[in-house]
Amino acid sequence: MNSDLHFSRSGGWIEVICGVMFSGKSEELIRRVRRAIIARRKVQVFKSHLDERYAGIYHISSHDGRTVQAVPVDTPEQIARGLEPDTQVVAIDEAQFLDPSVVALATSLADRGIRVIVAGTDTDFRGEPFGAMPQLLAVAEVVDKLHAICVRCGNPASRNQRLIGGRPARYDSPTIMVGSAETYEARCRSCHSVPRRDEEQLVMPAVATMST
Ligand code: ADP
Ligand code: ZN
What we know:
Layout (H helix, E strand, L loop, with lengths): L12 E7 L5 H14 L4 E6 L10 E3 L5 E7 L2 H7 L6 E5 L7 H11 L3 E6 L12 H7 L2 E5 L1 E2 L6 E2 L1 E6 L2 E2 L14 E5 L9 H15 L1
Parallel strand pairs: 1-6, 1-7, 2-4, 2-5, 5-6
Antiparallel strand pairs: 3-4, 8-9, 10-11, 10-12
The structure holds adenosine-5'-diphosphate and zinc ion.
């Protein structure tokens, strides 16, 4: 994994862990933070809690008993205000929910010599770039893209399938549905389904033609 590269002689840097839901981004972020704690770095962890379902705020402990709490935030500005002067590693989870100023924040932290670890879902339920993730991927020194397992066919999953009432959500449903009843599955490209209004209209006559 790229994370084991060391840039420590060259000051700060940005590393991004991206991929679909259930691909293990949080697990990987926690692993990296735990190792930074073992290395006796001063670490701070922040997590966007825009969507209540992702609010599972965790703490990370190392075997020597040192613990870091993930701090819930709504905005990159709250991260900037919460930073302590001697922090050497900043980890940000669920970064796709943060506003675009997270790119400038990550850049300025790295410029100041801080290792910045960002985890986030890089594509939304449509399979399109999500929030500031594309910009973060572009400015990062190191990028890891993780995959889950497609619940339909068992191949590597690269898409978030949104289901509403058990049916694929339409393309024009909102990117973030806070506190609603939809669920998600990890799927591969060919099992991923995002019906569009125009596709539904196109499909109808075709079906009608076939049945006559
Ligand atoms: P992420 O932060 O990317 O959403 P997490 O680190 O929270 O992922 O969770 C990863 C864990 O989710 C895996 O270790 C596995 O136990 C579990 N999991 C549930 N569904 C799947 C799936 N379809 N593919 C892979 N892992 C899954
Ligand atoms: Zn599949």
